[in-house]
Amino acid sequence: MPARTSARIADDELLITRTFDAPLGVVWRMWASREHMIRWWGPEGFTVTDLDLDFRVGGAWRIGMTSAMFPKSWSSGRFTAIEPERRLAFSFAWEQGSGEDLATKTVEVTFEERDGRTTQHFHQAPFQTVESRDSHVGGWNSLFNKEAIYAAALAKGIQLDQLT
């Protein structure tokens, strides 16, 4: 399993780099396809219950997820840039009742492949406080753990059910 994770933390931004044991085409499809995203999205222990994905610039996305310890929470946004197999940008906000910082943030994900492995650079900003930013580090890293498992399986031709 790809286990290299690094996070560089500035005051109002979050940057996480992760390398996956899967070619770029596989990792890209996981972000671009509802069929795949619904199976790996969310921190460990969470199940996606609802997913609307209009994967085009200007298209909206909305995800509802829940866990044994937390009620359903919703996040949503719009895609602002899509450069196939290179870059993806979208707005991200938690919805009322999620218990999270409701301010809209911008997420940019860039991808590069080397030797059949894909490195993903995830950037999210701006955060209103360091505490808010820090509260997102664990959640995103946990989500990327699920992404890594799903990507490795998909690269081997194994179709996994929804990871929790």
Structure explained in plain terms:
- The chain has 164 residues and is an alpha+beta fold.
- Helices cover 26% and strands 40% of the residues.
- The protein has 3 helices and 8 strands, in the order ββααββββββα.
- The protein has an 8-stranded antiparallel sheet with strand order 1-2-8-7-6-5-4-3, with helices on one face.
- Strand 1 (5-9) and strand 2 form a beta hairpin.
- The longest helix is centred in the last third of the chain and has 26 residues, at 130-155.
- The radius of gyration is 15 Å and the shape is globular.
- The model is unreliable at 1-5 (pLDDT under 50).
Highlighted features:
164 residues; alpha+beta
Helix content: 25-40%
> What does the main sheet amount to?
8 strands, antiparallel
| Helix/sheet category | alpha+beta
Strand order of the largest sheet: 1-2-8-7-6-5-4-3
Q: How are the SSEs ordered, and which strands pair?
A:
Layout: E1 5-9, E2 14-20, H1 24-32, H2 34-40, E3 46-53, E4 60-67, E5 73-83, E6 87-94, E7 105-114, E8 117-125, H3 130-155
Antiparallel strand pairs: 1-2, 2-8, 3-4, 4-5, 5-6, 6-7, 7-8
Helix pairs in contact: 1-2
Can I get a quick summary?
The protein has 164 residues and is α+β, with helices and mostly antiparallel strands. 26% of the residues lie in helices and 40% in strands.
